[in-house]
Amino acid sequence: MTDPTTAATTGRGDAVPPWSLAIVAMLLIQVSNALSVAVVEVVGAAGTSWLRMCFGALFLLLIVRPNLRRLRRADLPMLLALGTITGLMTTFFLAALDRIPLGTAVAIEFLGPLTVAAVTSRRRQALLWPATALVGVVLLTEPWRGATDMLGVLFAVLAGTCWALYNLLTQRVGDRFSGITGLAYTIPIAAVVTTAIGLPGVVAGTPPLPIILLAAGIALITPVISFGLEMLALRRMTHTAFGTLLAVEPAFGLVIGLIVLSQAPGVWQLVGIALVVAAGAAAQRGGRRSVMPPTEPAPASA
Fold first, then answer.
1. What is the DSSP string of 167-230?
2. Residues 6 or more apart from 232 whose CB is under 8 A from it?
3. Which of 190, 219, 237, 267 has the fewest CB atoms within 10 Å, i.e. the most exposed one?
4. What's the pTM?
5. CA atoms within 13 Å, Cβ hemisphere of 124
6. Per-residue pLDDT for the chain (302 aa), expressed as one digit of tens each?
7. Rounded to an integer, what distance in angstroms lies between the CA atom of residue 82 and that of residue 168?
8. C-beta separation of 107 from 137 below 8 A
């Protein structure tokens, strides 16, 4: 029987531009980040990250029901690495969000995948778009104002480092497993990895039922839906195109921050939005990969 999660990567699913999947994923991620602020106030950044990973793992296991017998020993290092990076990336970003505005945190974090886009590009012309995006990121961050929480900046830089590694590993896992099966392996790992730092905050915060339900709803958005869309997009895009297309994410962060958190952008931030959106739109041209069939082996014999 054909795995239904492969529908978006085979047949008629190829008619959907991969960059559109990435755009929807970015919007959903920023919505979930903004909604997470209310949970962070109760259980802290690490506790929120852990709840999101736990609920995400539960949803994915129920939806995908991965077959552990399909795993190869060679898959384990890659899956463990991606699961660990995913948990740390979410934790570091939420810690940054607890100290600096959403748009600023996303702008700093974006420097991670931006670096990957520049380094992996084989065409000198492609470096123009990361450079343009970098100018926009600087304008979004407004370092000349000197009022940014430096610990928040550090957390965002660490999240960006994880984000760069996440993109590289996600593409490899997406090539290896069909649909979003890879997430059903990696998100439970992320939940386990963040237990030691997240569980104490949840126990100390004793979150009420509405906060727990909010965390569950956020987990359905991110990591389940948004990370799944990113994995499907990365199967069909180059690292350079995907990494630079992510330049629009700081703009989404500013917009969602304004709507949900009432974090109004300044004039220079609006200029930065224009630059990163232009760079992201230009970067997706010519950035489509040939879709390779997943390499999942047949179930091991009993």
1. HHHHHHHHHHSSTTHHHHHHHHHHHHHTHHHHHHHHHHH---HHHHHHHHHHHIIIIIIHHHHH
2. 8, 9, 13, 18, 21, 174, 179, 180
3. 267
4. 0.84
5. 0
6. 334 344 433 444 466 888 889 899 999 999 999 999 999 999 999 999 999 999 999 999 999 998 888 889 999 999 999 999 999 999 999 999 999 889 888 888 887 877 777 777 666 776 777 778 778 877 877 777 776 688 998 999 999 999 989 988 988 888 888 878 999 999 999 999 999 999 999 999 999 999 999 999 999 999 999 999 988 888 888 766 777 777 778 888 888 999 999 998 888 888 887 887 777 667 655 555 555 555 555 444 44
7. 9
8. yes
Residue with tokens 């963040």: 194
Nearest to 181 by CA among 60, 82, 273, 48: 60
Residue 21: what residue type? L
Of 2, 20, 40, 6, nearest to 293 by C-alpha is 6
Which token pair is 193? 């990895």
